[in-house]
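Sequence and structure are kept together here, with a separate record for every protein. An example record follows, reproduced without changes.
>
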Amino acid sequence: MRANDRISDWAAWGRSGHAVRLDDRPALLAFLNEQLGGLDMPIPPMPLNEIAVPPTRLTSDDLDALAGVVGPDRVDATNPGRAIHSVGKSYRDMVSAFRGTLSRFTDAVIYPRHEHDVANLLAAAAAADLAVVPFGGGTSVVGGVEPRQGAHRAVLTLDLVDLDHVRIDHLAQTADIGAGAFGPAIEDVLNGEGLTLGHFPQSFEFSTFGGWVATRGAGQQSTTYGKIEDMVQAVRIATPQGLIATRLTPASAAGPSVLQQIVGSEGVLGVITSGTARVRPLPECVRFKAYFLPGWRDGIDFLRQMLQCGLRPSVVRLSDPVETRWLMKTSSDKAGLIRQVGKAYLKHVIQRRGFDPDRICLCLLSFEGAPAHVRADCRQAAGLASRFRAVALGSSPGQSWKRERFSLPYFRDDLMARGVMVDTLETATLWSNVEPLDRAVRHAITSGIDAGQARGAVMAHVSHVYRAGASLYYTFLARHNGNDALDQWQRIKTAANRAIADNGGTLSHHHGIGYEHQPLAAENGPLAVQALKALKATLDPTALMNPEKLL
């Protein structure tokens, strides 16, 4: 995927031909008008060819030296290529791209073909005093690919798209995967052999294996398959001091795990070039189940008891009342939740069951495996759900969600074009702390919205669960407050991150830290950060790798 292949992604999510327009979802548009006030008419983003890109800081000698490493056709110092590789997909990134107000640009984009190209490029960058930013799919939502130069004179972005191999070891049920391999390509190869990695983040279509590993990502089926750090068995990383290849074994007690120091390193130690992950046979049977629960707390208790009695649904998604109403209006008319469930049935739930319509929460589950095993799990889940007065909705809502699950980020584009701030953040904590943390984070976000004198909404869901606890994933929306949209957003984001740190949550469950979720010291304390900095100083003594991120 070269720069011109990424142009459709400019200032938006995904592919331009897949845009979602609120005008085509009248029920959702009416809901948003109710929550936020009358929305503006959408305005288009600044075209890529109108972005003011400053001249590269690289000299002709620099460019010649880089071309000598990888070939002249693999060095891109054009304005479009540099602009496209200077942003990720965070709210800050998208506002800057939409308005054409980017303040940092990479000086050149390099496309290595092999691991030894990466190693040689790092040596050239160190000799020329250049910072290096690894780039996979560019989907970071925490500022992870912004080209910050630190103390160096210029920045190179290494686009790893050509490191995309997938090689299967059938006996071990593992796959060696290149860092630049995109989600669909990985699954195409594996599915052709009756296998799956089972890693399906919302960014699945546009994110890469290397990015998943670098950020300790989680897919939507993590309760069954685990997060990426549970899947990865070995990695190869090119550092400014040389190559590290962790030993490929099923388990080891040979000291602290170097592998797990690399997983989640976000490009600050080096460039992950490939990794080996365990894969599994495709499930014989997949069955969705959906329930309405009478309230948020009931839903959380339902999930906790389900995990602690041994059930492991592949998909777990519990939406709070606001997100439940959003989902009921988000889907297209043909696939909408109300159409799937039926208006008469909804009325029955509300009137006959005595559910408060303002407190109803939607829970989506899927179970997969051998048919007999799936049937048994579904029966056990149904029995537990009945104790919480849950109302069974069948499989259609889950199937509807599955069809549209990768389209949800597209809504942000039209919302931003209409003057709406929309962003997400996520955390995780123990079951005993879920409610206190949830209250604190919601209060921080709503207070931040109110301080800006804007109308807004906060919604949340639980989508990754464990015996010990769960993740909480928040979406917040508010009307832009004049031209200070980023200041308004930063106040809310800072307050929410502080609430998470002060109330026992992790700064990130699966998006990483980047620079937007710093300081990392809030997670494990300053001594732990000092130890990580010592590791970085060993592998990257001149701090050329992804400056000002994570640490």
Summary: Residues 3-10+40-159 form a domain with the Uridine Diphospho-n-acetylenolpyruvylglucosamine Reductase; domain 2 fold (CATH 3.30.43.10). The mean pLDDT is 92.
